[in-house]
């Protein structure tokens, strides 16, 4: 809920009040503290050491990622039946909680008060993946009757102009003394402490990635962190990006120097991640990485795959036809591929750009629609009329996009990532083609009927694109039906919210850790 700051309404855009002020006794406020900025560790490496570390990572990280693919037996079992027969302590479950059955028809046994720390909260603008995840999750939990408090950075919009009539929504606290979008965890923590001391204490604290730094999270037993990206993933992503260089193209100096920063960052993460009591992994392979590489005890790692709003993303053929007509897809188009998200290098757009350029040399009726913003938007325009480039799209606009395409492409170069766009496309009844990474192979494309995987290089992607063209829209539509059934059983906002709810209940009271 977004409101103004009168009489403890749901947007608490607070002014600093001295503790001695009588107003502080009746109004939720923040206390003024000096901002303390976290400094990155500065490490000095000799050239030989940096080279050695680079070589170690270059050859070990890809192998490490391959080794951390979830066991085939688990994937195969869940591909046919998304509900597994499990009983016992949920904390011992090393698979995704999305495979378990939690009833949405039964109210929660205890209404929880949950504090959420997130760098940004979507207000009017087109949100990124992490913001969309947080918004979808906590709107669903608020609907379940839980009291949700969001602690976040100031928005770019004037929240007083936003119409707010629905009371069953999260309470959003925008901290002050910062530019719009600038996150200051210490200011947010001050707001949390005021709310926690002056009203009912919080049952659970949830931080999206390192919104709350590890030294603040240390020794807080009821705190959980969701990992949307880790430094080890950034290292491996940089390697895959560099592998796309042409043979005659030199390695960039910035790429070489970046390892002097990333290597100590990985080591620091392995050391400080254990300060967080509960870890939520967004994919099965991420859970494996946290247990085996980051050395987090298994019972403190919980896999809950992100979900998307099932009302926003569903199959709607008529909407798809209108979308194609609106953006000018020719009637003689034999195939329409789609890609959406940030148009940046680590999302694999150099890969898709090169592959599609090769594909259309001999396929004049195959089209690609690009939804998103970023540096590669202009590059895609260079490919001519067979590429239709759109800007960023809201979730409601994306519904038409997904229904209009024949297949969704995700060329990501982030091995541990699990983009919401994959789930949204499947929910709308579309097959997907994506990079062959453990996170995607173990959670999304667990059955060959759901789509295609390719190695993160141009040759492999071109080969798969040719296979897709050969199949054609009718066969792809059959695949899409299977995708929709799987996605609605695994990736809905309701499914995700019920899993988080059970975890938070388990954190509050261990009796709720026993399933069923």
Structure description:
The longest helix has 33 residues, at 458-490. The chain has 2 domains: 51-78 and 87-244 and 254-307 and 494-515, Rossmann fold; 317-490, Rossmann fold. It is globular. Helices cover 40% and strands 12% of the residues. It has a 7-stranded parallel β-sheet, with helices on both faces. The chain has a 6-stranded parallel β-sheet with strand order 11-10-9-12-13-14, sandwiched between helices. A two-stranded antiparallel ribbon has the order 1-15. It is an alpha/beta fold and 516 residues long. It contains 16 helices and 15 strands. Mean pLDDT is 86; it is low at 1-49 and 62-80. α6 runs antiparallel to α7, α9 (317-327) crosses α12 and α13 crosses α15 (458-490).
Assembly context of the chains: single chain
CATH H-tier superfamily of the largest domain: Glycogen Phosphorylase B
CATH class of the largest domain: Alpha Beta
Largest sheet: 7 strands, parallel
SS elements, strand count: 15
Strand order in the largest sheet: 4-3-2-5-6-7-8
- In the CATH hierarchy, the architecture of the largest domain is 3-Layer(aba) Sandwich
Q: What is the name of the CATH topology of the largest domain?
A: Rossmann fold
